From TrEMBL:
Signal sequence region: none
GO biological process, one term: phosphate ion transmembrane transport
Stated name of the protein: Phosphate transport system permease protein PstA
Lineage: Bacteria, Pseudomonadati, Pseudomonadota, Gammaproteobacteria, Pseudomonadales
InterPro entries according to UniProt: MetI-like (IPR000515), MetI-like_sf (IPR035906), Phosphate_PstA (IPR005672)
Species this protein is from: Halopseudomonas xinjiangensis
Subcellular location: Cell inner membrane; Cell membrane
TM helices/strands, residue ranges: 26-48, 78-106, 126-146, 152-170, 199-218, 224-241, 253-272, 278-303
Keywords tagged on the record: Cell membrane, Membrane, Transmembrane, Transmembrane helix, Transport
Length: 310
């Protein structure tokens, strides 16, 4: 068996190679930490600036419970944050089951052929398509072809199309991370493919799948281009009908077909006004939107922690 001195004598200095690789790793780690520091510092500075600018409106309770107004200091975000929540509910209901199902099929059931390769390439490419393209697709397909109107349902559908590739890719990566031994053990116990997927693979991949879904929804909550393209309102002084009612059958779906606005569009409307007070109100709305996004990401971290712990 060769010793270190034998390796040195043979012209291969493994100690030097190890030190060089360790130095390279430290340099790359330092660069990564520096880039992460710059990104976090920039985001934190932006958030602090928005808080300081919009503080007078943030501490005003009427800001959260009043409708938009032509008077900047009386304008509120009630219709905007309610519309955002409703659109996100529709987006999640449509995108998550379809995305998880498509990812599971492509990873576990689809045969390896040219058609599957084309689908995989297109799914990966669609994840990077600009959001305005999805807005134009929704305008031509849902509005002009199918004759649908600018409603909460259409907004949820276009945002579901936007984040569907993200959820599919996240699902496939989560399933790939599961060791093959788990599948082999399940098959060895006599389980079929669906039982293996539903009882072992999907529960084990659940943290990654949920994280991907929440990340996709976090992207959708801040999108403006596709929503503006389909004709969302920039000024709306009423709320959609409540999903839960006191009369039978107690559940109403009329809100799906109601006009709407969302937080990014409301901010866009205010920031385009010349009055400085509207800019102050837009800054306060930006703080609320960032907090909503942070809450969604915090929920993803908590769910992932609980799932891994379980």
């Amino acid at each position: 068996m060769k010793t270190l001195s034998d390796n040195v004598q043979s012209g291969v200095n493994y100690a030097s190679i190890s030190r060089k690789n360790r130095s390279t790793d430290m340099v790359l780690a330092g660069v990564g930490i520096f880039i992460l520091f710059i990104a976090i510092t920039t985001l934190l500075a932006l958030f602090i600036d928005l808080v300081m600018t919009g503080y007078p409106r943030l501490v005003d309770p009427d800001f959260y419970t009043e409708f938009p107004s032509r008077k900047p200091l009386q304008a509120g975000i009630l219709s905007a944050w309610v519309g955002t929540i409703l659109v996100m509910i529709v987006t999640a209901v449509l995108a998550v089951p379809l995305g998880v199902g498509a990812g599971l099929y492509l990873e576990e059931y689809a045969s390896s052929n040219w058609l599957t390769d084309i689908i995989e390439i297109n799914v990966s490419n669609l994840a990077g398509v600009p959001s305005i393209v999805y807005g134009l697709l929704a305008l031509g397909l849902f509005i002009y072809t199918f004759g649908m109107s600018e409603t909460v349902l259409v907004a949820g559908m276009v945002l579901a199309l936007l984040i569907l590739p993200i959820i599919i890719v996240a699902t496939r990566e989560a399933i790939r991370s599961i060791p093959k031994e788990l599948r082999e053990a399940s098959y060895g116990l006599g389980a079929d493919q669906w039982q293996t997927m539903s009882l072992y693979i999907l529960p084990a991949a659940k943290p990654g799948i949920i994280t991907g879904a929440i990340v996709g929804l976090s992207r959708a909550i801040g999108e403006t281009a596709p929503i503006i393209t389909i004709g969302a309102l920039t000024f709306i002084a009423f709320l959609p009908p409540a999903p839960v009612q006191s009369d039978f059958p107690f559940i109403s779906f009329e809100w799906l077909f109601s006009p709407f606005t969302v937080m990014p569009i409301q901010m866009f409307s205010w920031i385009s006004r010349p009055q400085a007070d509207f800019h102050l109100t837009a800054a306060a709305a930006g703080v609320v939107l960032i907090v909503m996004t942070f809450m969604m990401n915090a929920l993803a971290i908590y769910i992932r922690y609980r799932a891994r712990k379980g």
